[in-house]
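User: Hello! My lab partner asked me to get a predicted holo structure for this protein. The small molecule is zinc ion, SMILES included with the sequence. Please write out the structure tokens.
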Amino acid sequence: MQRKEIEEELVAEAKRLKARLVRFTQEPDPPQEIVPQVNGQVEGDLLDAASREAAVYQEEVLQRFLRTKGIALEEARQRLQAGSYGICQGCGEPIPEKRLKAVPYAAFCFPCQEQREK
Ligand SMILES: [Zn+2]
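Assistant: Hello! Below are the structure tokens for the protein in complex with zinc ion.
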């Protein structure tokens, strides 16, 4: 891949991320309504609260993921400009093109990434 192509891909991905984050803050999914039927109001409220909590938690996880990814994309752009793009930040070896195609913002080769996630 050409440097310009990579940069365009990184920018496009960052834009998609931003769009998703904006959607989050503007129109959060309404909590699912659970209508208490047989079990009465109290249990219904509890279920409702639980599902709201689950929704908020999911949103937080996703937001955190999107932010982390946004940072990774920005860092990849900086590496691109610094000329160190595609070089593993762990072992200094070139990151295989196959991996970069799948994850254009990858900062580590597979073995180093796995090492870090342990
Ligand atoms: Zn490595």
